[in-house]
Amino acid sequence: MRAAVLQGNSIRIRQMPDPSPLAGQLLVRPIFTGICGSDLSARKQMAAMADTLPPEAQGQMPAIIPGHEFSAEIIGIAPGTDTRLKAGDIITGLPFTHTHEGPQTIGLSPAHGGGLAELSCIDASRSFRIPDGVPHDLAALTEPLAVGLHAANLASRNRAPNVVIGCGPVGLAVILSLSLQGRGPILAADFSAERRHAASLLGADIVIDPRADSAFTHWGDLGLQPFPMSPLLERDFRGLPPGANIFECTGAQGLIDQVIKGAPPHSHIIVAGVCPHEEKLTPLDGILRELTLEFSFAYRPEEFAAALAMIEAHPDKAARLITSRQPLANTEAAFDSLASSPSEIKILIDPNA
Length: 353
Description:
The chain is of the alpha/beta class. It is built from ten helices and 17 strands. The chain is globular and about 70 Å long. GO terms for molecular function: oxidoreductase activity.
């Protein structure tokens, strides 16, 4: 099979052995596969590792077939697999599987190739049949939409207002989830005019360019009157005072500390951006204002199913995330474009084109 292989500091289209599904798995033909911020982060980390090795050793580095956001057709079912799914069904699924070495992420593990290939394997128990009428390219958005939905659901301390920092796929998924839940108002911040426009279309009430404005100066516009920093400043202070929900969806270095310093008292900060580097912050900044800092990872299976239902119910809104569809041969250029172009949001790869 043809596959896009990430190894060292390059992504090359290679002929790779066809995968064989284990018991409980499906052999699938990916139809559309999205490139994720986690893929970009993995590439950056692998390139940094390659820079520390001599050229002759780089061929010994792990080889990964990326792609954990995909729609696919079932080609085969491993013997001993208990499932109602059948060959020919179009599915999407949770890109996680269990091995003797522990849980693995399909498309981010050298042992489990992902959807940037003509063939892949996925657990039958974690697969969902795509409803009739849902376009296959939109179905590939289920995984990133589930990430945003989970982050929105974690924001349980305050219903509103909501501030979303970063309008990439995860930030936009947070905005769409909040909007469909009726949890406005929503302020969205991003440097990209294209992403700000998408945020407006998906439900953001206020959009700002951080180069010209601050997300932390609009509390009055969002209907929030910040409470005192401490209940000791009031004679009568009962219950949980209102604050804001602030979603950090960029993973940019130093931003968590900026959010903590800018958040009003009693706010709930949810970190959803991929942040593999070390961060520094001053706990007292959060203590004095009773901030809640929470980190969001992936989603629950029921949220994955809810994200697929969201796409079925609102296909026009889901389609706002897709900025281009490209053939497998363009995978490396697509990675470069997504990492550098502010106009790109979600690039889908057709592994069969």
